[in-house]
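Hello again, I could really use a second opinion on something today. I owe you a coffee for this, so here goes:
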Amino acid sequence: MLNATIQPAVKPLENGDRLNRVEFERRYELLPPHKKAELIDGVVYMAAALRYKSHGLPHSSLMGWLATYAANTVGVELADNATVRLDLDNEPQPDALLRIRSEFGGQSRISDDDYIEGAPELIVEISGSTVSYDLYDKLTVYRRHGVLEYIVWRVYDQAIDWFYLENGEYIKLEMNNLGIIESRIFPSLVLSINQLVQGNLAEVLALQQQQFKTKKHKNYCQKLRSRQEV
C-alpha cells in the first residue's frame, strides 16, 4: 500500500504575523468573510470590531460623497474595502478608494484573479483607534508606492487630513476660506470639511452636485474620454 502524502495544515492568520504576500493571501482565504486583515511592510494587522459612530457612520458618509463623484465622472471607479496588492510585503485593504480605470490612463489595474494591483489614485481611511497606524505606517507605505492622494478622517479629533503627493512627499492640502478642499488629482472633487464632520451629508452632496455643471468637470471628463483605449 502506498503511503499517502500528508499535507501540512495551513496555519491560522494572526495579528503581528510576519509574512510575504503569497503566504498572507493563503492564510487570509481561511478567515471568516467578516474578518479584515492587512499586510503592511510584511506585518499582519487585523482589525478589531468596528463601532457605529467611530467607523460605520462616517464610513457610509464618505462612501456617499465618493460614489456621487464616481457616478458622474467617466472612467473613475469607487471601491469599498478592496484588497490592494502593492508589492510582496504590502497588501492593504483601505476603507475606500477612487481609481481611474487602466483603459482611461489610470495607474492601477485589475488582476486576473480580481485584485487591484498597483497604487490607486486616491485612498481613504477612517481612523478611530488607528490614527497612529494610518498616519504613520500606512502613510509611509502609500507615499512610497505612489498613491497620489490620501485622506484620513480622524473621527475622535473631528478632523480630516487630506494629503497629495508632490516630489515624493505628502503635502497636506489646506481648506479655503469657506472650509472647502478640492482634489489636485480629481478635478471638481470637493469636500466641505466642517459639514462632513458635523454630519451634514446633504450639504456635502449638494456642494458636490454643483461641481458637475462646471466647465472644469466637463473638460476633465472629456480628457479622460480622449485617453480611453479602443
